[in-house]
Write a structure and sequence with these properties.
- Chain A: GO terms for molecular function: electron transfer activity; heme binding; iron ion binding; oxidoreductase activity, acting on CH-OH group of donors.
- Chain A: This is C-type cytochrome.
- Chain A: Its cofactor is heme c.
- Chain A: Keywords: Cell membrane, Heme, Iron, Membrane, Metal-binding, Repeat, Signal.
- Chain A: Pfam families: Cytochrom_C.
- The complex is a heterodimer of chains A (434) and B (241).
- Chain A is globular and about 80 Å long.
- Chain A folds into three domains: 149 residues; 104 residues, Cytochrome Bc1 Complex, Chain D, domain 2 (Orthogonal Bundle), CATH 1.10.760; 106 residues, Cytochrome c-like domain (Cytochrome Bc1 Complex, Chain D, domain 2, Orthogonal Bundle).
- In chain A, helix 1 packs across helix 7 and helix 2 crosses helix 6.
- Helices cover 41% and strands 4% of the residues of chain A.
- Chain A is mainly α and 434 residues long.
- Chain A has 18 helices and seven strands.
- In chain A, a hairpin with a 2-residue loop joins strand 1 and strand 2.
- With 241 residues, chain B is mainly alpha-helical.
- Chain B has a single domain, classed as Cytochrome c-like domain (Cytochrome Bc1 Complex, Chain D, domain 2, Orthogonal Bundle), CATH 1.10.760.
- In chain B, helix 3 packs across helix 5.
- Classes of the chains: A mainly alpha (434), B mainly alpha (241).
- Chains A and B meet through helix 11 of A and helix 2, helix 4 and helix 5 of B.
């Protein structure tokens, strides 16, 4: 066979594969939204105002609080919303950006349409944005709300603050790779009110799925750190933070009534549990600002979410033995029972009950171990201005003792009979707390 | 004296003698319960805790100083992952109350026994000179010039230097040199730390850790000591440079 005919044969064999690859690629590209997300609207004139009357700006400020923009876009002690906070991910470190209207380093030259587009599609003049930015949630926002948010951001004093460069590994370091990520994992879906549900339920879902972006912590992660639909608010380990976020559904939240849950969101405490760790931060900087009506709407919706399947029980590990349980009980009565009670019922808003506490019922014991090791304080809020605190035990109890007491409490009040090991505790010694 | 007013006087005396202290004890117990997390390292009343000798005492330190430290841990001017972890979601009002609680406790500025090695006679003399007189050539003010002649601190913003473990003082001065502990500008302690040599920092810290006061020695009253250097942290203390 001549060389030419060999090439022709190869081409014939290859053609269907190439066509198939193009078809699959095209289909995936279509599923992530086609070309529309990449058509970034033109820049503004530098100083564009969006219907910037005081009422609109005030509403935008409320929305910015509910969206908790400031928590991610502010460094510790830094200028609010001027960006620069580092996020450590499996792919490297990413820094948030400056949302103040500085022309060179912030949103000074952005137009209203560019802002709407970046919020909804995760693409700006800088290219495709990393999905640490919850654009999949913000896509649900109405034009009116996006414009109010933009008006509020435009009303801030411009701060000169360039974000430090991201430190990411290839291919994540190349923003073009994000198109591939979106093709594989991102499935934008239209968001509309459900006419069969009450306005309150719809408002709650809008806040939970939209501005609140609860799924960023409470969603179950899929391939490449994505948030697939089937893991919607199904809970799991929060990427980069070393905390477990519980599922949000009718079963998980059954211990609250709507009023208690709404109160918890606004105050950080309830007779059914207190907010610690990342949730304390969310309450402190965002949810404590909720109006009564919005808190009730969120609670109403959250309690209506159908229960997720329970995680499969670990049948390989041995349950807590009698000796270890006895040791754990002794330690519990010595160090914990004064506040949480011998029966684990706690005391009102001061000392949270352990009975059915998230940290004890969770399949992942990390929250319980962290709280015992390093202590915890719920956020100060108008309804809980002088919070009680949980003392740290890292310097008081050996890892084996912490393992024993956590195992005892999880078995007694969390229906989690598989013990935590001394190694599990040791691994969390010296964990970055911030 | 008519009987009614005699009775009201008796009631008043009873209130002063019995009810007020009882109310204060109850308020203290309530704070101690709320601040259980702090007690693990600092003691229930900030007097220090056994097995936690590195950590500074809080009892009787000036409230303004304690507040500034709490805010510093929250806002990134001081670095201690454990402290930041516990105070990061506290507002100023609660921090002010916590600071006032510890400031009102009986001070305990006994020598902090951290097992620091004894100083040579030379270094001891040098340390004492730095503490009492400073080093004019190097531009280092005396510790006593701001922290009070007895080093028991000055209300409302300058802490006692007696009763602190040497390791703790060394870590703080090192932190100021490296910029990981920052005061409000102008940061006078950063200036001081940068003008001291590491040897002298160690000597001063060890010397300070060996000084002792009787229990209950309070910081000097506000305005009784005028700082010779400008300290941003003292702006609220109305100390002029």
């Amino acid at each position: 066979m001549s060389r030419a005919s060999r090439w022709i044969t190869r081409a014939f064999v290859a053609t269907p594969f190439v066509l198939l690859a193009l078809a699959v690629g095209g289909a995936l590209f279509g599923l992530q939204g086609g070309f529309a997300p990449y058509a970034v609207p033109p820049a503004g004139t530098g100083g564009e105002r969006v219907d910037a009357d005081a009422a609109t700006i005030a509403r935008g400020e409320y929305l910015a609080r509910l969206g908790n923009c400031a928590t991610c876009h502010t460094t510790r002690g830094g200028t609010p919303l001027a960006g620069g906070r580092a996020f450590v991910t499996d792919y490297g470190t990413i820094h948030s950006t400056n949302l103040t209207p500085d022309v060179a380093t912030g949103l000074g030259e952005w137009s209203r349409d560019e802002f709407r587009h970046a919020m909804r599609h995760g693409v700006s003049r800088h290219g495709v944005l990393y999905p640490v930015f919850p654009y999949a949630n913000f896509a649900a926002l109405t034009d009116v709300d996006l414009d109010a948010l933009f008006a509020y951001l435009r009303s801030l004093a411009p701060a000169v603050a360039a974000a430090p460069p991201n430190r990411l590994e290839f291919p994540a370091s190349w923003r073009g790779a994000l198109v591939g990520w979106r093709m594989l994992t991102y499935r934008p879906a239209p968001f509309a009110d459900d006419p069969k549900q009450s306005p309150q339920w719809n408002r709650g879902r809008y806040l939970v799925d939209g501005l609140g972006h609860c799924a960023m912590c409470h969603g179950e992660r899929g391939m490449l750190g994505s948030l697939p639909r089937e893991g919607y608010l199904a809970g799991g380990r929060i990427p980069g933070l070393g905390w477990y976020a519980p599922p949000l559904d009718e079963r998980q939240l059954a211990r609250f009534d709507v009023e208690q849950l709404a109160g918890y969101l606004r105050s950080g405490v309830s007779e059914r549990g207190a907010a610690y760790g990342p949730m304390a931060e969310v309450v402190y900087s965002s949810l404590k600002h909720l109006t009564d009506a919005d808190a009730t709407a969120m609670a109403t919706y959250l309690k209506s979410i159908p229960a997720h399947p329970l995680p499969r029980a670990n049948t390989l590990a041995a349950p807590l033995g009698a000796t270890a349980a006895g040791n754990g009980r002794r330690l519990y009565e010595e160090h914990c029972a004064d506040c949480h009670g011998r029966d684990g019922r706690g005391r009102g808003l001061d000392h949270p009950p352990l009975d059915r506490a998230v940290s004890l019922t969770a399949p992942d014991p990390i929250n319980a171990v962290r709280i015992v090791l390093y202590g915890a304080v719920p956020p100060t809020t108008a309804r809980n201005p002088r919070p009680h605190s949980m003392p740290p035990f890292a310097q008081k109890l050996a890892s084996a003792d912490i393992a024993a007491v956590v195992s005892y409490a999880r078995a007694a009040w969390g229906s989690q009979p598989i013990p935590v090991s001394s190694d599990d505790v040791q691994r969390l010694h010296g964990i970055v707390l911030d | 004296m008519p009987p009614v007013s005699r009775w009201s006087f008796a009631g008043f005396a009873f209130a002063v003698a019995v009810l007020l202290p009882a109310a204060k004890a109850r308020a203290d117990d309530d704070m101690i319960e709320r601040l259980a997390a702090c007690a693990a390292c600092h003691g229930a009343r900030g007097e220090g805790a056994p097995g936690a000798e590195y950590y500074p005492h809080l009892a009787g330190k000036p409230a303004g100083y304690l507040l500034e430290q709490l805010q510093g841990f929250r806002d990134g001017r001081r670095q201690s992952p454990q402290m930041t972890w516990l105070v990061q979601f506290m507002d100023d009002a609660w921090m002010r109350e916590i600071a006032a609680f510890y400031a009102a406790q009986p001070p305990r500025t006994r020598a902090a026994d951290t097992g620091a090695a004894a100083l040579t006679a030379d270094l001891r003399a040098r340390a004492e000179t730095l503490v009492r007189d400073g080093d004019k050539a190097a531009g280092v003010p005396a510790c006593a010039a701001c922290h009070g002649a007895d080093l028991a601190g000055v209300e409302p913003g300058v802490p006692a230097l007696v009763g602190l473990p040497a390791d703790y003082v060394i870590a703080q001065l090192g932190g100021w040199r490296e910029g990981v502990r920052r005061g409000v500008a102008p940061d006078c302690m950063a200036d001081v730390a940068n003008k001291l040599t590491p040897d002298h920092i160690r000597a001063v810290a060890v010397w300070l850790s060996q000084q002792s006061h009787d229990d209950g020695r309070r910081p000097a009253p506000a305005g009784s000591v005028v700082s010779p250097v400008a300290c941003g942290g003292l702006a609220h203390a109305a100390v002029t440079p």
